[in-house]
Automatic annotation (TrEMBL):
<dbReference type="Pfam" id="PF13683">
    <property type="entry name" value="rve_3"/>
</dbReference>
<dbReference type="GO" id="GO:0003676">
    <property type="term" value="F:nucleic acid binding"/>
</dbReference>
<dbReference type="InterPro" id="IPR036397">
    <property type="entry name" value="RNaseH_sf"/>
</dbReference>
<dbReference type="InterPro" id="IPR047656">
    <property type="entry name" value="IS481-like_transpos"/>
</dbReference>
<dbReference type="GO" id="GO:0015074">
    <property type="term" value="P:DNA integration"/>
</dbReference>
<dbReference type="InterPro" id="IPR001584">
    <property type="entry name" value="Integrase_cat-core"/>
</dbReference>
<dbReference type="InterPro" id="IPR050951">
    <property type="entry name" value="Retrovirus_Pol_polyprotein"/>
</dbReference>
<protein>
    <submittedName>
        <fullName>Integrase core domain-containing protein</fullName>
    </submittedName>
</protein>
<dbReference type="InterPro" id="IPR012337">
    <property type="entry name" value="RNaseH-like_sf"/>
</dbReference>
<feature type="domain" description="Integrase catalytic">
    <location>
        <begin position="127"/>
        <end position="310"/>
    </location>
</feature>
Amino acid sequence: MGQVLHGCATTTEAIRRAIQHSQESLRSLSKRYGINPKTVAKWKKRGSVADLKTGPKEAKSTVLSIEDEAIVVAFRKHTLLPLDDCLYALQATIPHLTRSSLHRCLQRHGISRLPDVQDGKAKKRKFKAYPIGYFHIDIAEVRTQEGRLYLFVAIDRTSKFAFTELHEKATTAVSREFLLHLVAAVPYKIHTVLTDNGQHFTDPRGESWTAAEIKELIARKELFRAHAFEYTCAKADIDHRLTKPKHPWTNGQVERMNRTIKDATVKRFYYETHDQLRSHLADFVMAYNFAKRLKTLKGLTPYEYICKLWTKEPDRFTLNPLHKMPGLNMLDLGEGLLDWIEVWGVRGRYQSLAPAALIMRRRAADLWLPRLSMTTMSPGWRTGRSCCST
């Protein structure tokens, strides 16, 4: 059987065993095997012929203190969050924590691997990559004590930037206005929107003009009748795509965002008025866009990803997004932002992350902003509009 010896070893296991069993002097053994007498003495004292492990006998971190490691271990065992999520949450408390030092700490304590919960489940399929400006749009119903509201949601496939509005009606005109508000809100060109086949977005019978056909009719200056949403897409030079009928998972990104919003609002809290829901939703979407660090964006927030892309592909943008970040002179948001942070995340796993999620980074000056304001922001970036159709 082959031996795995230290790279600088001058003896084999057979020689070491012979040294241990020999009664000769150290000098004669060193002369016989051509090694240093100190090496002979070392193996004489050993009880085995195997190399000892190198490095410190007790593994410990040179970056983290004992208290830091205790925080990391307790947090991991309590939340069972993935590595990156643990890193983002703990860096607010332990600023010098890095991904590698966190991983080594979890390995030392035997908790580097989470239990496998994917048995029997189909693997998630990734969305096809598109340039920034591909929005998924959908409508969901929510309720307060005053009655029903329609939640219009749009999310960018690439940047994950979310835009929402609440309306008392879900008509074609409201859908058209929502698209116009979305175009005005984002600082880059929207090239594609994906919706279902509902009458809010298109003719369910498939008898209306498409956006491409409408553009041709406009170019020829012909008279025609078209769906308001399709016409708006054509005027804004947006490619309107439809999902396959009875295949809602095709628009899965916005469906998942709908669930996230409901889990953090109407499924967790009771709202007496529509205004309470509007205020809470505005805080939630604001914090999501400017404070929530996403693994799919490699730890960046949607806003930070947009700013990063601005430096690489400025031609896709209609204005500089760096000018739209809330500044240090913002007014107080109140308690609304804390409310959603306490319930953020899937299955309530982020309930203890309020201090970490509340911290926001200002990209231009790299300053930490503990508070946000909606009141003094540019209207184009008020992502949680309090619109109410009549």
